[in-house]
């Protein structure tokens, strides 16, 4: 897992909301995106239109704001923007959790659950059996417009004995007068199609896959017929397959295929075989040794591997007969393979990479250094907790001496003792609290590992700093047994009396915490790298980095070398990880004039942002429209986002279309028209030339927390240009830009506000977008904790959560390294969709 622990400073992360906050006005509460009043929500389910209402069901935990007790929550809307939350629709019970699925109106009463005059609404969902983990497809029905539900006595209706068979999307298929189910075989990267006359008896028609991106499980499929360029005589079928992890921006995302469906089988359009750009091969690992490249450690062996090494699964995707493979001795070994220095004289460095997904993180060290000088509060040596106070049964009566029975190997602690709450497994709970001490240095440094359950989640595993009995700083683990340095900046608390409390309140998976060597220091401790990565090093700094995707299949990656032309550089292949997938594979380093594209980059994506997953569409919407919605979150960090008492939001619903763009049919999306009903107080700017600067757009009248922006730019010579939203104190900003050198739309949320709750959250997301007649058109929706950016005709969409300071409401226009002309920008303030 990533190396930097999830640190949170109390002022940035409101974990509790004052009792007098009026509903839907809490910090970060979306104003025009659906959220439940309280508790956890993920996938949208059961999207159907009936008697003037759009139904939105959703994966919901009725008992808390972390994932669990999965049930179907329920909301309805007449316009897809103003939502009314209804009582729980389908509840988990002793036998099952109610996983994702769909809903239909059974107009012909094929099920017999209703009558022709009052046709039933039927939900088709995945029953997740609590005892066995088996996933099967089941029914429930309603005869009162979805207000109350009855589970079918004959459930399940399809059971193939699989634990990875889920998310049925059912529609009426007119040509055969039958129901069509699209459902996922998640770990096989396949979608199955079934047919039924009555929703109860199903026949397997065909399978599709694996295809496209397969770096994670396939979930929440949808099969949608759409007219190409509005031509009703040219219908193509779109198969949406959501994938996690392995998405275009990392983690979860919505992939799609365009093709044909003949009533039985989906056939994707053939995109042909991929040929990477030609170039000069710098290292192809075809010799018996590494040549002029040097190694440290033992992970890479004495020379290139001929594929898999002892104990490793099959390795594929490398070129020729050799590659660099750091699995020598298994995942527990570490090492670095370094190229000789070279002068950068090409535009791109293309190479193949595979193995573990453990990105390089800035500020980490390649080897463990001694802790900085300071005062040790506790090192847990000497066989006792001393004057610390323990409660419960998780911590025992004395420190652990390393790994406990049935625990994966614990590493990274100092000396022989540490705090390890895995005593008798994850099921034990308790606290361990220090005596009081005075904060007289700038930092509290400590080693931490174990479960990722932050303070503010229902059952934390965390290290807390208490001042006056209140939690003012906290850190959790990363779902890994390796301990690593974490630090709290406590300069603002100088002179205060404080205590450290170690909490294990979790009895589920990774329900424990490991802690060691707690100290006060004026120097921040630097964490040790746990990366498996390929790095470009210039002037001693890592300036470009790539990692694997937890797969033994290598794929193309590319570094943009243009900013480093003429500089001296080295390539480093780094394996500093000793846990699962703690190895890296690399091959065929090639200097080229154009970037190579990975399978993931060559796949098609409904959204290129970090926060659009489980995207599915409404059945039988009026006017033949096809609206789609996704969960505006990412499984990489979904449980750690700093919202309370709810966690999880849905995207704005999008009207979908197929358009021919640049000679290729693409799935496009635009916000549902009814967003315009919330618009107020428009302000505009026209004909503004911006030259290598950033300046306010319009002024105070354009500022806000909830905005709808339409902007058109004419390209001049600027390399990058665009808008910054939610700008505020301390350089806080969310950058929405266009890069003319790469022809990409991008969103940079590195400085967007609270970003430190998970190492994969900050960063830049990009989407390919060609200018049209020298112009770039943007539509931007800004809410209290999100941005959704629609570029061009909706072929490039980026959806990202942000957690800015509520006071940061500025809107700015910028250009870098040249000028751009802003032809027109209109900014509307958006009213709340809540009553």
UniProtKB/TrEMBL annotation:
Upper taxonomic lineage: Bacteria, Bacillati, Actinomycetota, Actinomycetes, Kitasatosporales
Record-linked InterPro entries: ConA-like_dom_sf, Glyco_hydro_32, Glyco_hydro_32_AS, Glyco_hydro_32_C, Glyco_hydro_32_N, Glyco_hydro_beta-prop_sf
Domain Glycosyl hydrolase family 32 N-terminal: 33-292, 592-667
SUPFAM superfamilies found in the cross-reference section: Arabinanase/levansucrase/invertase, Concanavalin A-like lectins/glucanases
Source species, domain of life: Bacteria
Membrane in keyword set: no
Annotated ranges, domain Glycosyl hydrolase family 32 C-terminal: 675-829
One Pfam family in the UniProt entry: Glyco_hydro_32C
Keywords per UniProt: Glycosidase, Hydrolase, Signal
Designated name of the protein: Glycoside hydrolase family 32 protein
Signal peptide positions (record): 1-18
Record has Signal as a keyword: yes
Family in the record: Belongs to the glycosyl hydrolase 32 family.
């Amino acid at each position: 897992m990533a190396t930097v622990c999830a640190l949170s400073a109390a002022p940035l992360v409101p974990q509790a909301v004052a009792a007098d906050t009026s509903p839907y006005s809490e910090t970060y509460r979306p104003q025009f995106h659906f959220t439940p009043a309280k508790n956890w929500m993920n996938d949208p389910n059961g999207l159907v239109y009936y008697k003037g209402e759009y139904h939105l069901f959703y994966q919901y935990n009725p008992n808390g704001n972390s994932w669990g007790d999965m049930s179907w929550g329920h909301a309805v809307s007449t316009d897809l923007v103003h939502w009314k939350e209804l009582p729980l629709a389908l509840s988990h019970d002793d036998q099952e959790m109610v996983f994702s699925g769909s809903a239909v109106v059974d107009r012909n009463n094929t099920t017999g659950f209703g009558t022709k005059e009052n046709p039933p609404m039927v939900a088709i969902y995945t029953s997740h059996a609590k005892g066995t983990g088996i996933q099967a497809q089941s029914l429930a029905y309603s005869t009162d417009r979805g207000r109350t539900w009855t589970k079918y006595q004959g459930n399940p209706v399809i059971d193939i004995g699989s634990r990875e068979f889920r998310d049925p999307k059912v529609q009426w298929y007119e040509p055969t007068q039958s129901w069509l189910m699209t459902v996922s075989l998640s770990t096989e990267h396949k979608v199955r199609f079934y047919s039924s006359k009555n929703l109860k008896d199903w026949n397997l028609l065909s399978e599709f896959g694996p295809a496209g991106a397969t770096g994670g499980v396939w979930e929440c499929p949808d099969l949608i017929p759409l007219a190409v360029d509005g031509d009703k005589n040219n219908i193509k079928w779109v198969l949406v397959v959501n994938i996690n992890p392995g998405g275009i921006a990392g983690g979860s995302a919505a992939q799609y295929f365009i093709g044909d469906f003949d009533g039985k089988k989906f056939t994707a359009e053939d995109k042909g075989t991929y040929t990477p750009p030609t170039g000069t091969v710098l290292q192809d690992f075809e010799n018996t040794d590494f040549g002029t490249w040097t190694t440290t450690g033992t992970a890479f062996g004495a020379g290139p591997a001929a594929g898999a090494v002892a104990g490793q699964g099959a390795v594929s995707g490398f070129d020729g007969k050799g590659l660099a493979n750091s699995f020598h001795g298994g995942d527990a070994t570490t090492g670095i393979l370094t190229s000789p220095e070279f002068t950068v004289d090409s535009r791109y460095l293309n190479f193949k990479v595979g193995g573990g997904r453990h990105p390089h993180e800035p500020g980490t060290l390649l080897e463990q250094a001694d802790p900085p000088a300071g005062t040790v509060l506790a090192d847990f040596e000497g066989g006792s907790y001393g004057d610390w106070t323990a409660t419960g049964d998780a911590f025992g009566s004395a420190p652990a001496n390393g790994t406990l029975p049935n625990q994966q190997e614990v590493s990274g602690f100092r000396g022989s003792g540490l705090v390890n709450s895995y005593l008798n497994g994850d099921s034990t709970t308790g606290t361990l609290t220090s005596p009081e001490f005075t904060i007289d240095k700038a930092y509290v440094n400590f080693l931490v590992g174990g479960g990722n359950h932050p303070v503010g989640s229902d059952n934390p595993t965390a290290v807390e700093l208490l001042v006056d009995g209140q939690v003012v700083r906290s850190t959790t683990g990363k779902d890994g047994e390796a301990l690593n340095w974490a630090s709290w900046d406590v300069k603002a608390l100088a002179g205060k009396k404080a205590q450290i409390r170690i909490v294990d309140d979790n009895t589920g998976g990774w329900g424990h915490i490991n802690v060691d060597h707690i100290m006060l220091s004026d120097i921040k401790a630097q964490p040790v790298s746990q990366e498996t990565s390929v790095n470009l090093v210039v002037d001693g700094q890592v300036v470009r980095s790539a990692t694997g995707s937890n797969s033994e299949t290598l794929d193309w990656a590319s570094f943009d070398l243009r900013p480093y032309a003429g500089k001296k550089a080295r390539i480093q292949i780094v394996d500093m990880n000793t846990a699962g997938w703690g190895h890296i594979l690399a091959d065929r380093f090639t200097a080229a004039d154009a970037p190579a594209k990975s399978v993931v980059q060559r796949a098609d994506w409904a959204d290129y942002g970090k926060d659009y997953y489980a995207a599915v569409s409404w059945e039988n919407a009026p006017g033949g429209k096809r609206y789609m919605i996704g969960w505006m979150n990412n499984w990489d960090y979904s449980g750690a986002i700093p919202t309370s008492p709810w966690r999880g939001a849905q995207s704005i619903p999008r009207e979908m279309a197929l358009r021919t763009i640049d000679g290729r049919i693409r799935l496009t999306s635009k916000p549902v028209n009814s967003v315009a009903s919330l618009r107020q107080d428009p302000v505009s700017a026209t004909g503004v030339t911006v030259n290598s600067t950033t300046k306010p757009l319009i002024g105070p009248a354009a500022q806000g927390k909830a905005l709808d922006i339409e902007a058109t730019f004419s390209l001049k010579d600027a390399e990058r240009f665009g808008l910054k939203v939610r700008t505020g104190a301390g350089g806080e900003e969310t950058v929405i830009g266009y890069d003319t050198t790469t022809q990409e739309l991008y969103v940079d949320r590195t400085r967007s506000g609270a970003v430190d709750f998970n190492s994969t959250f900050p960063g830049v997301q990009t989407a390919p977008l060609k200018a049209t007649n020298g112009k770039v058109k943007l539509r931007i929706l800004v809410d209290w904790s999100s941005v959704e950016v629609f570029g061009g005709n909706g072929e490039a969409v980026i959806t990202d959560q942000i957690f800015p300071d509520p006071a940061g409401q500025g809107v700015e226009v910028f250009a870098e390294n040249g000028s751009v002309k802003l032809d027109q920008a209109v900014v509307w303030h958006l009213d709340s969709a809540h009553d």
